[in-house]
Amino acid sequence: MVLPFNPRVNSRANGVDYHRILVDDIPLIDVRAPVEFAQGAFPCAQNLPLMLDSEREAVGICYKQHGQDAAIKLGNELVYGAVREARLAAWREQCARYPEGYIYCFRGGLRSHIVQQWLHESGVDYPLIEGGYKALRTFAMKATEQASLLPMVLIGGNTGSGKTRMLRELAAGIDLEGVAHHRGSSFGRTLVKQSSQIDFENRLAVDLLKKQDRGIRHWFLEDEGRIIGSNHLPICFYDQMQRAPVAVVDDPFEIRVVRLQEEYIDLMRVEFERAYGRDLGWDNYVEYLHHGLFAIRKRLGMERYTKLKLYLEQALIQQRETRISDGHLAWLVPLLQEYYDPMYRYQLEKKAGRIVFRGNYSEVKDYLLATSQTYGD
After folding, report:
1. Rounded to two decimals, what is the model's pTM?
2. Which of 241, 208, 199, 197 is nearest to 223 (CA)?
3. Largest CB tally within 10 Å, which of 140, 152, 213, 230?
4. What is the Cα–Cα distance from 283 to 371, expressed in whole angstroms?
5. Pairing mode, if any, of strands 152-157 and 45-47?
6. Packing angle between helix 110-121 and helix 82-97, nearest 10 degrees?
7. How far, in Å, CA of 377 to CA of 218, rounded?
8. What pLDDT shows up at residue 14?
9. How far apart are CA 240 and CA 226, in angstroms?
10. Catalytic site positions
C-alpha cells in the first residue's frame, strides 16, 4: 500500500523552505571550496567560494593543529585585501542579480556566516540556509526515498523502441538517462559530460519534486539497469523498479533501425559538428562510434568485432564523402540482431511475470495514458 505523499512535509527549517528552493530553482550562492562543489551541488547553485582549495586545505590543517581561533586568523590573512574585495564584488553582483536567493556552505556554519557578515558590512543583507548544503541534500534524499514509494510502470522493449521519446511525451515520465546525461548503452555517451554521482542524485530529486508539485502521483520509467554510464540509481528507487509492472513496446525491427540510425548516427554527427565545427566535430563523432563498438568487443568476440569495425570504417568513409549514413546499416543491423536483441530478450524473460501489456509504440503510449487517468493525474 502506498501512503499519500506530501512533498512539503518537513520542508522547512529555520524559516527556509527547502521544497520551494528546489522546485522553484531559487538561485544559491555556494561558498564551499571548488573541490567540494565538484563533488556535488544543486542545479540552481553557483560556486563563489570563500576560500579556494589550497586555502581551505591550509586552514583545515591549522584548525586541526592549533584550533579554531588560529584557523580563523589564517583564513583572514589568506582572504585579505584585493582578494577579499574581488570575492566580495562577485557575491554582491550575484545578490543584485538574484535578490531572492540564499547563501550556503557545507553545514551552514562559519563560512556562510562570514560571507553573510561581509555582505552586511558592505550594505547587502542576504539570507543563508541554516544547516547548509548538508541539510538541503538530506531533504532531497528523503524526498527521493518517499517518491520511490509511489506506483511505477516500466517501459520495456528492444533497443530502438522509442522508450526515451515516449517518456518525454508523458507527464509522469522520468527520463533517468536524461538526468544522467547518458543513454545507458556502450553508445550512450552524449555531448554533455556525466557529472558526479551526487549531482545525478540531486537532479533526480529535483525532477521528482517538480513533477509532484504539478500533481503527479505515479511514475513511468524505462526498464533500466541500476548503472547508467557512470551513475547509479538510488537503491531505494531501483529496488522499487524491480517490483514494478512492465509495458513492452514491440515495434517492427525496421522501425527500430530507422530510429537508431537517426538518433545515434545522423543526429550525433550534427551535434558534434555543431559543438566543435565541421572538421573537429567529425573527428569527435568518429571517435564516439569507434569507442562505442570497442567497449563491447569482448562480449562480441574478436572475430565479430573485427568484422563490424571494418563495416563501420567503410561506412564512415562513405558518409564523409557523401554525407549519406546508410552504409552504417552494414554494422548496425547485425549488432542489433546478434547482440542487443538477444541480450534484452534474455533480460525480459526474467521479468515475464511482471509484463502487463505489449503493443506497438502507439498502443503502449495509449495504455500508459489510460493508466495515468486511474491515478487522477
Report:
1. 0.89
2. 241
3. 140
4. 45
5. unpaired
6. 80
7. 8
8. 56
9. 11
10. 105
Q: How many Cα atoms are found within 13 Å in the side-chain-facing hemisphere of 306? A: 3
Region of residue 295 (phi > 0: left; psi between -120 and 50: alpha; otherwise: beta): alpha
pLDDT of the residue at 109:
86
C-alpha cell, 137: 541534500
Average pLDDT over residues 348-375: 94
Please give the pLDDT value at position 108.
87
pLDDT tens-digit readout, 29-55:
999 999 999 999 999 999 999 999 999
In tens, the pLDDT along 183-192 reads: 878 888 888 8
Q: Which residues contact 270 (CB under 8 A, 6 or more apart)?
A: none
Task: Tell how strand 152-157 and strand 102-104 pair up.
Answer: unpaired
Confidence label for 3 from pLDDT (cuts 50, 70 and 90): very low
Q: Is the pLDDT of residue 4 over 80?
A: no
Determine the Cα–Cα distance for residues 157 and 155; give it in Å rounded to an integer.
Answer: 7
